[in-house]
Amino acid sequence: MRDEDKPAIRDLPLFRAVTTQTFDGLMASTYAQSFPPQLELFRQGDRADFLHILVEGAVELHAEWNGRDAVMAVVRPVSSFILAACLRDQPALMSARTLERSRILMLPAVDLRAAIRRDPELAAAVMGELARGYRGMVRQVKNLKLRGTRERLAAWLLTQSRREGGAASFVLPVEKRHLASYLGMTAESLSRTFAALKKEGIALDGARVIITDRAALAQAAGQDPLIDEMDASEDPGEVMLPSLGRPRGG
Amino acid sequence: MRDEDKPAIRDLPLFRAVTTQTFDGLMASTYAQSFPPQLELFRQGDRADFLHILVEGAVELHAEWNGRDAVMAVVRPVSSFILAACLRDQPALMSARTLERSRILMLPAVDLRAAIRRDPELAAAVMGELARGYRGMVRQVKNLKLRGTRERLAAWLLTQSRREGGAASFVLPVEKRHLASYLGMTAESLSRTFAALKKEGIALDGARVIITDRAALAQAAGQDPLIDEMDASEDPGEVMLPSLGRPRGG
DNA sequence: CGAAGGTTTGAGAGGCCTCAATTCATGTGG
DNA sequence: CCACATGAATTGAGGCCTCTCAAACCTTCG
Predict the structure, then answer these.
(1) If you classify domain A148-221 with CATH, what class do you get?
(2) According to the UniProt record, where is the region Disordered (chains A, B) (predicted)?
């Protein structure tokens, strides 16, 4: 791996508090690899042999069933993913594919588990990551079960705006059909829901969203700190919530 | 707490591998309490000060938003719940209420966190629980996003049958309206979906379900080991999936 | 400039929900 | 033991929401 990546990795919640010895040991068995866009990194059902750490680019986690496909999360640097499957030494429940050209560190699950046994700080960090990931998924289930599409989209727009530092205007970080799938609807429905929200305080310009009336939008969304990640404490900055990993940096 | 509970608690995945010292220490700061049915144990948004361990009875985890309510999980003995919120020292994302008269052990989150710091075995067990819980929630999201109501119900029936040792006939463990909410539909829709499945290999007798044609039902469900918990390795026996805890015993 | 793929718009069907009424199960008090 | 009250489950009617299929439009990129 490149040395210039180390500081970012080292700053991951997973590794921040870990001993230098543990960290260097892990990095020794880790290797980096670059992948072109649209490449399937692994498929759901594959044994999770490596903890993946996205250093550069973007990766989409999705799930398939019966010919259908649903986006589960989009991972941005610097974040790890499929931590849970690695720990349990079990098949991944999601597939992963690159959205852009991506550089990924691959840390053998065996070594990760060994290091956890040795370093209590690492164990604690992993625990924290898992707990955060679990709560993120609980949020997603609540979002799906309790809200309709209009509310989900409105809430996502507000959350995204907050991530961009409260900007009134921002560019969608992924294609609309991916956002649609992430939000549990079709691309057509998303398009119509966007149109409907034009009366609720937003405007569209291609992939750019402009929030013209934040209060109205918040009203339409019914924002809730117990569904939307509204403070920094639980939201490490992923573009779309609940992968296991952390953003920031890049 | 009653001494007769100890063996069951001790056998929880959380505590199984823990030192006697850790276990006894935790049990010393734990106190037991009995609650009548239909009692709100805590509400979403409440700080999670205690890890709850259900020793007897049944507890429902649910979530509210905008006047709506959704069942997230039903916990059966002996299982712990709200582990993630305890670890993060953050508000619970779900509310909990007893379904039956229940006896519950309450373990102060502070002591739990302290014990984790001291005992690596406990830390490892907590990690395992969290990873399992996370994967359970991923399954739930896949279930909601990828399947329709008919498939969700059919799959749940098969899973439930498997939990009951593969019985062709079993009694629903909760009221139908709770099952409906858990599966993300209304009570009316559940009723109609049940009716529809009568042509797909099931029969109904009040709260009793009889699987008359397992193959047909499996066909309708589109069972998938990456959505439904089909082997024992990830399914500790909850009635409805992904709380953080473990069944067995009772 | 043309091809490919994403996005929007339209039309139509179907699924699921809402509201309402009826039936059924449970439990209480007379 | 029955009458009644309460709440669950079912059934029906109607409507909205979301999906599907299809075509047109727009953007990107070779």
Answers:
(1) mainly alpha
(2) 228-250
